[in-house]
C-alpha cells in the first residue's frame, strides 16, 4: 500500500518549506566550499589543481543524479498514489545508472588521468565509485521532493555537505593527496544514504523503461545547462592571459553565489510545476528568483568593496567595478535553471536545443572577438538574458 502523500503546499507551508530547504542547501554548499578551502590549505598547488579537475569530473558525471531526482519528483507529484512504485523504480534505476557511469569512468580512467596529467588513474576510479552514492542520493532527494517531505529532503542536503567536509578533511589530514581527497568525498557521499536510506524501496518495479528514457532526457537537459553555466569558466582560461583569467575566476565566485541563492525556490516549486495547471506556480517561482537575483545584483553594486573582500581582497581590485555584472550573470542563470526545471516538469525538451545553440553562439563570440574580462562577462550576461526570455516565451506557449 502506498504511503500517504501530503497535499500540495499552501503558500504559508511553501514559505516554511523554502526556508528549511534554503538553510539545508546553504549547509550543503558551505560544506563544499569549506572542503575546497581546506584542500587549498592542505594540498600543494599542483595537487589542488588536480583535485579541482577531479571535482569537475564528478560534477559532469553527477548530471544523472539530477535527472533521477527531477524524474522521480515529477512522477510522484503527478501521481501521488504510485509513490511506492516510483520509489522502487528510482532505487533500481539509480543504482544501475550510478554503477554504469562509474564503470565507464573506471574503464576510461587511464585516458582521463593522462588528460588531467595525474600520476595515477586511481583518483578517477574513486570518482567513478563516488557516482554510485551520488546517484542514489538523487533518488532519495526526488522521493522526498515529490512527496513534499521537506524535513527529509533537508536532511539529505545537510548530510551531503557535512559528509564532504568531515570525511574529505579527515582523508587529507591522513594523506594530503588528490587520491585521499577524492576517497574522502566518496566515503562522505554515502552519509545521506545511511541517514535517509529508509526512503529507498526494493521490489515492485513497474514501467522502468519509460522512467529510464525520461532520466536520459533529463540528463541531456542538465548537461546542456551545465555547459552553458560553466562555459565562461572554461573559455576565460583560453582567451584571457593568466592575470585576467585569475580576475575572472574571482568574479565567478559571485556568479556561483548568485546562482545558488534562489535554488531553493526551484526545489520547492518543482512538484507544483509538474502538475497540469501550474501557470501560477511558474509565475510566482519566476518572480521569487528574479527578486532574489535583483537584490543580489543591487547589493553587489552598492557594496562592491565588501564583495571584493568575499572574492579574494585587494589583489583582485581591478575587477571590483565589474562584480555586479558577475552577480547579474549568476542571477540570470538561476532564472534559466528554473525554466529548465519547468521544462522537465512538463516533459518539454525544446529548451535543450536552445541551451546548446546559446552555448555555441556565446563560445563563438568569446573565441573570435578580442574580448577582455568585461567583454566575456557581458557576453554571458546577454546570452543568459536571451535564453531566459526565449525559454519563458516557450514555456508560456506550451502551457496554453
TrEMBL record:
Subcellular location, in the record's words? Cell membrane
Alphabetized, the UniProt keywords read:
Cell membrane, Membrane, Transmembrane, Transmembrane helix
**Transmembrane stretches, start-end:** 48-68, 88-108, 120-143, 155-174, 180-199, 211-228, 248-273, 285-310, 322-341, 348-367, 373-394
Q: Give the membrane topology, semicolon-separated if more than one.
A: Multi-pass membrane protein
**GO cellular component annotations, sorted alphabetically?**
plasma membrane
* InterPro entries xref list: Poly_Biosynth_Transport
For this entry, the protein name equals Polysaccharide biosynthesis protein
Amino acid at each position: 500500500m502506498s504511503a500517504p502523500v501530503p497535499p500540495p503546499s499552501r503558500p504559508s507551508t511553501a514559505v516554511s518549506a523554502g526556508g528549511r530547504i534554503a538553510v539545508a542547501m546553504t549547509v550543503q554548499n558551505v560544506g563544499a566550499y569549506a572542503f575546497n578551502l581546506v584542500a587549498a590549505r592542505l594540498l600543494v598547488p599542483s595537487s589542488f589543481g588536480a583535485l579541482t579537475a577531479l571535482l569537475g569530473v564528478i560534477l559532469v558525471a553527477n548530471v544523472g543524479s539530477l535527472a533521477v531526482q527531477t524524474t522521480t519528483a515529477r512522477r510522484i507529484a503527478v501521481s501521488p498514489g504510485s509513490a511506492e512504485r516510483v520509489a522502487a523504480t528510482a532505487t533500481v534505476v539509480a543504482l544501475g545508472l550510478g554503477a554504469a557511469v562509474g564503470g565507464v569512468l573506471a574503464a576510461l580512467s587511464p585516458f582521463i588521468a593522462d588528460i588531467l596529467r595525474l600520476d595515477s588513474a586511481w583518483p578517477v576510479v574513486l570518482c567513478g565509485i563516488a557516482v554510485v552514492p551520488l546517484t542514489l542520493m538523487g533518488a532519495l532527494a526526488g522521493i522526498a521532493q515529490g512527496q513534499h517531505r521537506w524535513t527529509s529532503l533537508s536532511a539529505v542536503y545537510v548530510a551531503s555537505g557535512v559528509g564532504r567536509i568531515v570525511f574529505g578533511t579527515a582523508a587529507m589530514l591522513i594523506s594530503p593527496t588528490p587520491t585521499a581527497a577524492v576517497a574522502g568525498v566518496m566515503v562522505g557521499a554515502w552519509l545521506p544514504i545511511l541517514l535517509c536510506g529508509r526512503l529507498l524501496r526494493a521490489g515492485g518495479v513497474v514501467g522502468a523503461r519509460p522512467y529510464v528514457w525520461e532520466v536520459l532526457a533529463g540528463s541531456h537537459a542538465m548537461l546542456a545547462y551545465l555547459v552553458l553555466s560553466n562555459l565562461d569558466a572554461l573559455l576565460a582560461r583560453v582567451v584571457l592571459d593568466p592575470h585576467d583569467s585569475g580576475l575572472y575566476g574571482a568574479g565567478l565566485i559571485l556568479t556561483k553565489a548568485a546562482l545558488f541563492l534562489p535554488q531553493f525556490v526551484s526545489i520547492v516549486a518543482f512538484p507544483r510545476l509538474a502538475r497540469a495547471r501550474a501557470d501560477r506556480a511558474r509565475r510566482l517561482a519566476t518572480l521569487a528568483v528574479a527578486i532574489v537575483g535583483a537584490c543580489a545584483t543591487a547589493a553587489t553594486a552598492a557594496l562592491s568593496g565588501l564583495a571584493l573582500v568575499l572574492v579574494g581582497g585587494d589583489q583582485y581590485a581591478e575587477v571590483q567595478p565589474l562584480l555586479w555584472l558577475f552577480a547579474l550573470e549568476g542571477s540570470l542563470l538561476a532564472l534559466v535553471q528554473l525554466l529548465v526545471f519547468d521544462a522537465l516538469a512538463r516533459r518539454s525538451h525544446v529548451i535543450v536545443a536552445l541551451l546548446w545553440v546559446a552555448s555555441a553562439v556565446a563560445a563563438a563570440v568569446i573565441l573570435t572577438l578580442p574580448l577582455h574580462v568585461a567583454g566575456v562577462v557581458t557576453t554571458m550576461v546577454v546570452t543568459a538574458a536571451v535564453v531566459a526570455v526565449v525559454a519563458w516565451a516557450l514555456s508560456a506557449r506550451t502551457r496554453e
